[in-house]
Write a structure and sequence with these properties.
The protein is α/β, with parallel strands linked by helices. It has ten helices and eleven strands. The strands form two sheets. Strands 1, 2, 4, 5, 6, 8, 9, 10 and 11 form a nine-stranded mixed sheet that branches. Strands 3-7 form a two-stranded parallel sheet. The longest helix is centred in the last third of the chain and has 20 residues. The chain starts with a strand and ends in a 22-residue tail after the last helix. Keywords: Hydrolase, Lipid degradation, Lipid metabolism.
Length: 300
């Protein structure tokens, strides 16, 4: 029986398009058997694998705002004034970690009953790190596999963009954003045993009218490199989705709902192609998520 996996790539706030894509797939009756996420995609992948439906995520995620970004300007300025250049990141990441931990009841990734892989990068060893919930069907010697970690901490590591977020320390490792080495984790989905892979890639490097700030220059350099990376990695997928989210800043939380809608509408338009690429057969799939029983509660 065909085993379907989805790779959710990074893209900052644009990653909310993943929710819309998952919702459209659910409505079309396409069951997902395994899931991998990198950077922003790790957030959605983790919550979905934990048991939240796409519709629950559509209600939940728009309530996540900038208040969950704990900027550490005081430490940044203090170290800058003292010329202590051991500045690890402007955002501590603890608030976001605590948010995910609460939503997943402080579960460890190995406790999930759904095949999940989240990617990160070990800066010290220059190695790709994969957090997995179950043993890999197709092991790879080129990366380090970790199962003993809290799900929220794995997500935090996967989204920790260098310099912007502080790295996550775990058993001697210095972990940063998964997109540094693999922004759209198609190979991770294959390693989980997927026969067919749907990749949701949110990287665009279209021409810009102007680049007028240090942050815009850094963002542009990153997007160009990721776009080049995607040309090669996405070839491994059976079908690649590029939701048309438009111009969205990395942390532009005002565009959350817009990105969700864009992902939903785009995936619906391509549903015939998706089903053709998957060549799905009737019958029960070997794996299925267990719906969670508790009710989430985010302050509005």
């Amino acid at each position: 029986m065909t085993k379907v996996g989805i790779a959710l790539g990074g893209g900052g706030v644009a990653g909310c398009a993943h929710i819309g894509a998952l919702c459209a797939l659910e409505e079309a009756g396409i069951q997902i058997d395994c899931l991998a996420g990198s950077s922003a995609g790790a957030i959605i992948a983790a919550l979905y694998a934990y048991g939240y439906s796409a519709k629950e995520l559509m209600e939940m995620v728009p309530n996540i705002t900038k208040r969950y970004l704990d900027y550490d300007y005081h430490a940044f300025l203090t170290k800058l004034i003292k010329r202590n250049f051991k500045i690890q990141g402007v955002i501590k990441g603890k608030r976001f970690h605590d948010l995910i931990a609460n939503l997943t009841q402080y579960a460890h990734i190995a406790e999930l009953n759904f095949p999940l892989a989240l990617l990160s990068t070990d800066l010290k060893q220059a190695r790709q790190v994969m957090f997995i919930s179950q043993p890999l069907a197709n092991p790879c010697s080129e990366l380090d596999v970790i199962t003993d970690i809290q799900l929220a901490k794995a997500v935090q590591a996967s989204i920790s963009i260098p310099v912007l977020f502080k790295p996550v320390m775990h058993k001697g490792r210095v972990l940063v954003d998964g997109g540094v080495m693999d922004n759209c984790p198609i190979s991770a989905v294959r390693a989980l045993g997927a026969d067919k892979v749907i990749a949701v890639d949110l990287v665009f490097a279209d021409p810009l009218d102007s680049i007028d700030s240090l942050f815009s220059i850094l963002s542009r350099v990153v997007s160009i490199n990721l776009a080049i990376q995607a040309k090669y990695t996405t070839r491994q997928a059976d079908i690649v989705l590029h939701p048309e989210v438009g111009s969205v800043g990395l942390l532009d939380f005002s565009k959350l709902t817009t990105c969700i809608e864009a992902g939903y509408e785009y995936t619906q338009k391509r549903m015939r192609e998706i089903k053709g690429a998957l060549t799905m057969t009737d019958g029960n799939h070997p794996t299925a998520r267990t719906p969670i029983k508790h009710v989430y509660n985010l302050e509005k």
